[in-house]
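Async update (no meeting this week)

Hi team, since we skipped the sync, here's where things stand on the single-chain job. The sequence we agreed to prioritize is pasted below, unchanged from the tracker. I ran it this morning and attached the output directly underneath so nobody has to dig for it. Comments welcome in thread, and please keep replies under the output.
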Amino acid sequence: MARKARLKADDAIFHIMCKSISEVDLFRDDEDKEKYLSLVKKYKDLYHVKIYGYCLMDNHSHLLIYANGADISKVMHGINFSYAMYFNKKYKREGHLFKDRFKSKIVDNDRYLRTVSLYIHNNPTDIGEFKDCPEKYAYSSLGIYIGKTRDHFNLVDFGFVIGFFGNNLDFARKHYYSLVFGCNDEKLKEEFEFKHEKTKYISERKLLVRNFKSEDIMEFIATKMDISKFQLHMKYSRKLVEARALTVVLMRSICNLNSSDISVVLGNITPARVSKLSTIGIELIGSDKKYENILQEFIKYYVH
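Output:
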């Protein structure tokens, strides 16, 4: 039987759930959960999506993601493929880790968005010690939502969702928390465990357009770094690593090119090296003040 085509929308919010195969826990310890969140952060930054919430349980994970023009399949493939490689290496195993593809549902209205967010944050109440205090569970974004926990990964854009619960932040947080405990009945569980598909959700948020060409990226980087576009094709120049790394990140992010595509564009480079440069570029953007706003600089460069 053919697989059902995955619903996609450039401006959609997705509820994502990933499950492990039945005989294996997806996360065996806290290190595994922290690794997964670090990968969510990596691909959030790479594709410039927004994370509106998350919860990692032992055998499954929930993510609430605004695609912002990105292909959600590429985002989730990057996260889950990287995590499976880490997991299999750490535990000296082979084979599949995730049960089928990740499951995704497009959030189709504001009411559904509010409810699925509450449901995701209700998950830790299934764990005995967190039944009455799910905000204390370290691998859920609930604590961040209600202002009790720092966002150590700088991961969650909670303001959009919390705004549906009140105009005053303190009131909205208290109101949100009071409603979390009502999101554990069987009807909601059936709905949010993907027994039914939802329709397209049209948002009024500003969308990041991703139809730029690779030549646009190379011209911008060459100008910014005061080099020639030809130098971006040079294989063994260490001083150009930063320029090539930033080029790769922008090509993957806003041209929607994969590693194989970029290896063809740049030439003299393997897809594996492209992936390595992508990691270097993401780290540069996250740690070096010179590059933290490079996406906005690129867009301004072409708008003007």
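Quick observations from my side:
The chain has twelve helices and four strands.
The chain has a mean pLDDT of 86.
Reply here if anything looks off.
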